[in-house]
Amino acid sequence: MTSFRTGFSVVCLFVSSIAAAQTPKKTDQSIDSKVNALLAKMTLEEKIGQLNQYTSDRLATGPLSPNSSKYEDIRNGKVGSMLNVRGAKDTRMLQDMAMQSRLKIPLLFGLDVIHGYRVTFPIPLAEAASWDMNTVELSARVAGKEAAAAGQHWTFAPMVDISRDPRWGRVMEGAGEDTYLGSSIAAARVKGFQGKGLGNTDAVMACVKHFAAYGAAIAGRDYNTVDMSDRLLWEVYLPPFKAALDAGAATFMNSFNDLNGTPATGNAYLQRDILKGKWNFQGFVVSDWGSIREMIPHGFAKDGKDAARLALNAGSDMDMEGRCYIDNLAALVKEGKVSESLINDAVKRILRKKYEMGLFDDPYRFSDQKREDAVLNSAENKKAALEVAKKSIVLLKNESQLLPLNKNAGSIAVIGPLGKSSEDMKGFWSVTWDNDHLVSLYEGLDNKLKGIVKLSYAQGCDVTDTSKAGFAEAVNAARNADVVVMAVGEKFDMTGEAKSRANIHLPGVQEELIQAVKATGKPVVVLVMAGRPLIFNWTADHADAILYTWWLGSEAGNAIADVLFGDYNPAGKLPMSFPRAEGQIPVFYNHKNTGRPASSDHYEQYRSTYLDLPNSPRYSFGYGLSYTKFDMSDLKLDKSKVTQNDVIKVSFTLKNTGKSDGEEVVQLYLRDMVASVTRPVKELKDFQKVFLKAGESKTINFTITKEKLSFYDQKMNWIAEPGEFDLMIGNSSDHILLEQKFELVD
Ligand code: GLC
After folding, report:
1. Do residues 241 and 190 touch, judged by C-beta distance below 8 A?
2. What value does the mean pLDDT of the chain take?
3. What atom of ligand 1 comes closest to residue 112's alpha carbon?
């Protein structure tokens, strides 16, 4: 392992030193000297106070325990940060309390601004389907602006956990199954939240979470154990965290899970060796809610004092709602079990961020009610939410070219339990939404059609209830319409934290409702509104058209209406594989070939397959259709052999051969055919989203660098091995249109 650590640290230290220089900071020397001067004045209790974070009583995002001394603690300098305090008024009030403390050290206010503050954006997994980094950054930028105007200094986002398991409810918060896409999105979100840099009053600190590998919880059950090889950790789960750090992320949050037997919050390998060591992270690590104290039920800490010792020594700087630090660290220092120098390091990391945010200059600079009123819910922000929502929609099926609908459609029946729901459009992790500004599907259609097309509505059934009492009315509505638009899926709180599900079929009797409506013979468009990949095989086989619209936020209905009527040509691509059955999970595109691959034709039944299902998912990573067609041709590589310090220039022609303008996401995959470690059958190594007018062609260029050929060898050194590679270009991981081999030579 030594060689691995040495090998990796060389790469990382070099890269992170560049990253550190790129992190927009005020002159470090001036801040560091202020931090050191303040630290010198602080008592041990005041230092420990900076490591302590409480939640507001008005919003609990975890198991709440009574805390009668909260406000007294703030006045006595025993609290460094508060979370879940919303609005300029309330943050100002609490900051006032902090200003009564001896040293007047300002509080940091943090909140889960995951996909929007007042204007709600599509859930992160939906935004990932846009494959559009400008769109992802725009969403975070607007969320950051609104949050900063509402008193927030810090958002607990982006969540960058890779996950291959749709049973895990928190897939809705991330960017799906792929490391390359997930790393690109992680960086875009950090840039969005932090804007032009900390200290600007429209920027909030990002918080990269959950460090680390939380998305690999066994059986997709939230908070469950994670056990994986170093190779899988470094190759799949860590890169998005490094990408976020390199983008300048101010803070990290650790995770509830244990990793290979050590809870993340007490994991010095993760937090000291990797994050603060090899990666040279200068910010601070906040625990997840109570994750320090939860090392007791993990069976890793004997009691709160033991948990405090383990966590502080392992590099957890701030204790979110665990009260282990505030209750025990002073005694631990006196007993010599925790060194004050480690506490000083944690305090300095936190104070440095408070200086960078300008809070010592003006503790109230983010708590301005006039600015809050001016910035929140602006027309500009809602326009941005509409743009992001449109780009998040994925067209899964349109066989009979039913879509886009014609505005002379005559009459449309909107059927299904989510057809008139506005509340569910906000999705999970909306903590400050405005219910009056969530546009339902029905409202969106009404806004667009304004009486041109007769609209009717029938709920048909509930999301989870098994009653079919509403079927007759729904079937009747379908019979009396020219086209049916069905809105099915999940309620906003069915996917999210602590929302793992063993059964991810369309809930309740919704698929039977679709069957009953389809039996009328009317053309049926099915919209699936959900926070995760769901299973709906009958619908996939029989619906005329299917759009996966996720939970699209404030402008959901308007965005869907734009797509339904072709005012926007959908271009989304799935960021996760959709299983045919729960039994396939984990199913993901970048799997290994095995010694008896399903594709082989000479092993008869002795192949890595199921007896009852194909290996392939129902819908693959990277899949999504358009109202137009794209062709790829004329693939050229400027060389067929490349040396270690050279690159290959790749070009091909993309043509819009259809009748409407549109965007295509061209995806470049590589396969290392033979290596000293088995390699996936393909890995996404680059992509571009390209707009072409009908009939237009464009030459697309990619560059193959050594980095794209590299992997961790047997000794976990990051290297590229000579040999043959297969280059594949397509518009989905399972739809490769161009392919050519090349060789890496010494
Ligand atoms: C929650 C989540 C975390 C969130 C924190 C504060 O339990 O795990 O993602 O940021 O607590 O709400």
Report:
1. no
2. 95
3. 10
Domain ranges within the chain, ordered by starting residue: 42-107+256-377, 380-564, 630-744
CATH code reported for the domain at 380-564: 3.40.50.1700
Residue whose pair of structure tokens reads 């789960």 in the numeric block:
237
81 lines ligand 1 (CB under 6 A): no
CATH topology of domain 42-107+256-377: TIM Barrel (3.20.20)
* Ligand 1 lined by 550 (C-beta under 6 Å): no
pLDDT at 15 over 60: no
Strand runs labelled E in 13-172: 52-55, 81-83, 108-111, 154-155
Tokens representing 135 are 């769109």
d(CA 518, ligand 1 centre) in Å = 42
Task: Give me ligand 1 centre to Cα 251, in Å.
Answer: 14
Q: Please pick, among 288, 306, 368, 672, the residue that the annotation labels catalytic.
A: 288
Ligand 1 atom index nearest CA of 207: 10
pLDDT tops 70 at residue 22: no
Q: What angle do CA 423, 559, 141 make, to 5 degrees?
A: 80
* Beta bridge partners of residue 489, listed in sequence order: 529
Ligand 1 mutation pick, 59, 171, 497, max ligand atoms within 8 A of CB:
497
Q: How far is the CA of 208 from the centre of ligand 1 (A)?
A: 12
Structure tokens at 126: 């939906």
Residue 543 burial by CB count (10 A; 0-12/13-18/19+): exposed, middle or buried? buried
What is the model's pLDDT at position 409?
72
- 681: pLDDT strictly greater than 50: yes
- Given pLDDT bands bounded at 50, 70 and 90, which one contains residue 635? very high
Summarised one tens digit per residue, pLDDT across range 351-403 is: 999 999 999 999 999 999 999 999 999 999 999 999 999 999 999 999 889 99
Which whole-number Å values give the CA distances from 595 to 119, 231, 608, 722, in the listed order? 51, 20, 8, 22
Instruction: Work out the angle at residue 253's Cα, subtended by the Cα atoms of residues 250 and 254, and round it to the nearest 5 degrees.
Output: 145
Contact residues for 27 (Cβ-Cβ < 8 A; gap 6+): none
CATH superfamily of 630-744: Immunoglobulins (2.60.40.10)
Whether 235 and 281 have beta carbons less than 8 Å apart is answered as: no
Fold match, 380-564 / 630-744: no
Q: Order the strands of the 630-637 sheet from edge to edge.
A: 630-637, 648-656, 697-704
Q: Are 394 and 140 in contact (CB under 8 A)?
A: no
Nearest Cα residue to 410 out of 472, 473, 456, 442: 456
Q: Is 567 a catalytic residue?
A: no
Residue nearest to atom 11 of ligand 1 (CA): 289
- Nearest-CA neighbor of 323 among 55, 85, 110? 55
Q: Is the pLDDT of residue 98 over 70?
A: yes
Q: Is 497 in the pocket of ligand 1 (CB under 6 A)?
A: yes
CA distance 153 to 131: 28
pTM score above 0.85: yes
pLDDT digit string, tens, across residues 517-543: 999 999 999 999 999 999 999 999 999
Counting atoms of ligand 1 from 1, which one is nearest the CA of 289? 11
Ligand 1: centre distance to CA 272 (Å): 22
Rounded Cα gap, residues 298 and 258, in angstroms: 8
